[in-house]
Design a protein that fits this description.
single chain; about 240 residues; alpha+beta; Trna Endonuclease, Chain: A, domain 1; Restriction endonuclease type IV Mrr domain-containing protein
Length: about 240
């Protein structure tokens, strides 16, 4: 069960009730981050990749994994980093046997939905790539898609009810880190996470996306997305 603690902002002294996020371990068990209720939170001034992750042990299988650092936004505008208890050492013999994840059930085949012809947006700039991806998500049936003018620290460029998306406009293949960060953001928001890019995906990023059932699309310069994995094909065929 997720733990709730009292957190006081060191800047304005406001108090907040903070509930630790819960993430699914690879074994299928929930992992609630063990936040420290008695420690003073730290103001986030500069973000780094290493500082955005913490280690926590799964109570079911004993594996230690990396999860997003718990953060809280105060009413005064300060972003606070909530510390967690570090994982205690555990010998292999004392760890409980991992619970095998349930076997996935193949999704039933679905008939493609009749839609009007998609009208792409020609890509000349990074913002055009975001606009093209947003246009495609609207065409798929996702409503109220908002486009970020600047990519926030979370890496989420597009957001709408039940959907988050990352758009990589660079000329390098999208790395594994971007895929895992996108998936965690979707998990935290209880939303479908979708990735768009111009230059394809690194091999390990592609494999990881397939494991996570995360749809991958590649945009050509006309602004037309192409599905590059089975979850993307499934997203296109899913009614909404």
């Amino acid at each position: 069960m997720a733990e709730s603690v009292q957190v006081r902002c060191p800047v304005c002294r406001r108090e907040h009730r903070y509930t630790a996020p819960v993430y699914p371990c690879g074994c299928g068990a929930p992992v609630a981050l063990p936040v420290m209720g008695s420690s003073t939170p730290v103001q986030v001034r500069h973000r780094t990749w290493a500082g955005s992750w913490v280690s926590a042990r799964c109570p079911a299988c004993g594996n230690v994994e990396e999860w997003p650092q718990p953060e809280l936004s105060c009413d005064c505008g300060t972003v606070l980093r909530v510390p967690i208890h570090p994982p205690a050492p555990s010998s292999p013999a004392s760890r409980p046997a991992p619970t095998p994840p349930p076997a996935p059930t193949p999704a039933p085949a679905q008939t493609p939905i009749p839609r009007p012809a998609f009208r792409p947006v020609t890509i000349r700039t990074a913002q055009d790539a975001k606009t093209a991806a947003a246009q495609y998500l609207r065409w798929l049936g996702f409503a109220e898609i908002r486009v970020a003018e600047r990519t926030p620290a979370s890496g989420i460029d597009l957001r709408g009810p039940g959907i988050v998306a990352h758009v990589d406009p660079t000329t390098s293949p999208t790395p594994l880190r971007d895929i895992e960060t996108l998936w965690l953001n979707g998990l935290n928001d209880s939303a479908v996470a979708v990735s768009f890019c111009l230059a394809g995906y690194a091999r390990d990023a592609r494999y990881r996306a397939d494991e996570l059932a995360l749809p991958l699309f590649v945009l050509d310069l006309t602004g037309t997305p192409k599905a590059v994995n089975d979850p993307a094909d499934q997203l296109i065929r899913t009614p909404r």
